[in-house]
Amino acid sequence: MDESLLKRVKKYANHFEEISGVDTCVLNLRERKFYEDPPSFCQDSCPCRGGDCDCLQVHLRNCLEAERWDGRYTYYCPLNLIFVAAYCTTRMGIPTGVVAGPFLLDEFDRDSFPGLDEKALSALVCIPVMSTSKGYHFGETLGALLTCCGTRDRGFSPTENRWELINKMFKFATNGADGTTTGYSIEMERRLVHLISDGDNEGARQQINQVLSYISFSANGNLDAARARCMELLVVMSRAAIDAGAEVDTIFLLNETYFHELAACSAVADMGVWLSTAASGYASYVQDAAATKHSYAVSKAINYIRQNYASKITLEGTAKMVYLSRSYFSKLFAEETGTTFSNYVIQVRIEKSKQLLLDSSVKLADVAYLVGFVDQSYFTKCFRKIVGISPGKYRNCQGKLE
């Protein structure tokens, strides 16, 4: 790293350390080393040093992850302490990183760290404790500070540039000879599908309003063209409802009614009212199907999870909410849903994250926090396990999986 960049990075890292009370250190990512000293806990108290874990390799790896996640990355070390890594480069392309930590999300509990000697336990007692929200803002601030040091502009990350390029290619492919747009937004359609699958009738209605303006513009007054676009959306929405658990026969009967109503529409505005009603109807059938499938306690818990997925959700807290013991509720939930409580929470969060990943205005690095994950690396692991690809690849391909 050139001396001017090193000086700026040290300056901002020192400011951040003084304000936050959390240790920071600077890493040379090209030569793969600490510029001065590792975090004080790693240097003085970490029992992993000299053992199976190399703290330097852990922090280097996650600084490189920060480059992929728009400049900052939150992660757990092997001892389950939380660190934040930030990344920047010079105009000459020289990469550097800053690591801040460790800190905890809950008050220190000796029983959570078995096998540590008294020296290490004494050091853990002094580690700062943050809420989930504060931990997120902590990472955001560190990432923003480091952009002041190098040339990286988080508003134009490689991932976001590719997303913009994909959108431009789609618009070019759907433009007619006269320059008017002839197709509706695939991104809008996929968001609509997710909302219907979640049984979110109000969200589906709101999303339809955006799609309608697109259809009206693309039809350019042509009633048949608008009707064709609405028919396409009707098929898409009905399939989403069926996939989400709605009764097939019920949806098919509903489709017959909607087809006749659509044929009777004599204006694009009438189609808008009709389409909004249809979207809300499909979502309601999904919601009803989910409610009748589970007992009252499990249904109430599922609704709670879907409404509060971005917050901290615990098995014990949810069991108390439905007035059941922890063990009985856990057994009941698993029997009726076919999966454990924790797995279900993760599945809901991953489904919500897929919606956010289709929204190019949401930074990739923010998605994990917005759906309730504190650790970005754990979010990536869960996403890859459930979806089959990484969150970044899912955004790049607009949710189109092979």
**Largest sheet report:** 5 strands, antiparallel
User: Which stretches of 5+ consecutive residues score pLDDT under 50?
Assistant: 152-184
CATH topology of the largest domain: Beta-Lactamase
Task: State the name of the first-level CATH class of the largest domain.
Answer: Alpha Beta
Overall form: flat
Work out the number of β strands: 5
Which class do the helix and strand fractions yield? alpha+beta
CATH architecture of the largest domain: 2-Layer Sandwich
Q: Count the DSSP helices.
A: 18
Oligomer: single chain
Share of residues in helices: 55-70%
What order do the strands of the largest sheet run in, or round the barrel if closed? 2-1-5-4-3
Terminal CA distance reads: 42 Å
The tally of domains stands at: 3
Mean pLDDT: 76
In percent terms, what proportion of residues is strand? 5-15%
| Topology order in helix (H) and strand (E) letters | HEEHHEEEHHHHHHHHHHHHHHH
What does this protein look like?
With 402 residues, the chain is α+β, with helices and mostly antiparallel strands. The protein has three domains: 154 residues, Beta-Lactamase, CATH 3.30.450; 125 residues, no CATH class; 101 residues, Homeodomain-like (Arc Repressor Mutant, subunit A), CATH 1.10.10.60. The chain contains 18 helices and five strands. α7 runs parallel beside α11. About 8% of the residues have low confidence.
